[in-house]
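Components:
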Amino acid sequence: MSASNLQLLLEQGQFVVCGEMSPPQGADKAPILKKCGYFRDVVDAVNLTDNQTAIVRMSSVMSSVFALEGGVEPIMQMTCRDRNRLAQQSDLLGANAAGVKNVLCLTGDYMNFGNHPGAKGVFDLDAVQLIRTVADMNEGKFMSGDEVKPPTGMFIGGAANPFAEPFDLRIIRLGKKIAAGAHFIQTQPVFDFPRFEKWMAAVRDEGYDEQAFILAGVMPVRSVRALIHMRDNVPGSCIADEYIKRMESVADSKEESAAMGVAMAVETIKRLREIPGVKGVHIMPVMWESITPKLVEESGLLPRPKPEPCHSEPVEESLSGAQAQ
Amino acid sequence: MSKLSERVAGFCEKHPVLYKCVLLGENAFKKPVFRCQDCGQCVLSHNAFTCCMRCPKQIRNGPCGGTRPDGRCEVYPERACVWWLIYERAKKLDRVHKLKIYHIPVDRRLEHTSAWMNMFAGRILPIELGKKSRDVELTPKDPPPVK
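Structure:
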């Protein structure tokens, strides 16, 4: 199976841009196809969330397939909250067969954040074990040891939160994810540069930026309310007062707020590009997907490059050198 | 594990009353002291003697991304994040290097069985660093015959 667009671009040293969209809360694929219009030729790949914040939406597997239909390369998110190891492996087979080539492995938000707080949480595996499972399947082995025929060809992602405590343990866990087989890492949105730079310095010290592609998170916000909500209600997020002050200064006008949100995000992207070891950005326009083209354009990242078609080797071969270190 | 320990475990498991006694003794010690969650495959010695199965998400390779700045859990703000506790204790006990070990998925068949006997019987598989653990057999021997 040929490598994904995202993998080829990263390996060819391009600064990549990822987007993110949440699947609809209804039995219709039209919203996905509509959102694909905002991302097509604007970003290199798009995350399809897996019941994020534990709210029921269309499955990330099917949404990823519809995203392919919409002309966008999907990064299928897969959490450990809703499926046990059998379901996870079978979904990976199905998604890969349908042409989904990127997967982001997550543990998943706890049920009490969402709209089914009484649900049973599965958490059969954790994110690190899931990454290892996908890596094993790429090498032709199910967790049971049985053969996967033919093997999957997934470009494997993991998440990292540079802003939560304990700092040093997060670096250790990032190392575990990379050793388990993660090819790329997406971070939480950056709203605190000193902290992010400290984290990147620790990542470079360990050499992890050479072993996996680090994609920094960027979140455009529309209002000061959204920022304050994130600061107060999203555990593990860290928002510098500077951003809140700037959004507050334009809080009276919707248009000005939106413009300020875009300006701040553009500034963040430009600053992130300067940090050594950051190989791309991951834009998370929560409920504001339509802003992505403007944001990417103003950041000077358009037009998006096409990968050179010269080589298309399977995932496991192309990165095994990096992992062996 | 040596042949002797396997024979001890084998003997205990053949005698349900004896096995129950071992299990009771183990639980009487581990439950109050470590708030053991009975996974039957203990990793206390790797995690600075703090049970990671107390995490609401039962993360063996923790922590998740939601630890609050003061070290509380994202799910239950009134509790401490177990992984934060593990890290603080590991620093005190000079065991941070042990946190770098990759833990294989939990074998659910061993839940509510004696971790000590499982260790003696060689049911708890070695957990190794990084790349090597991919070679570890993920489905161990049969579970103990008694529960």
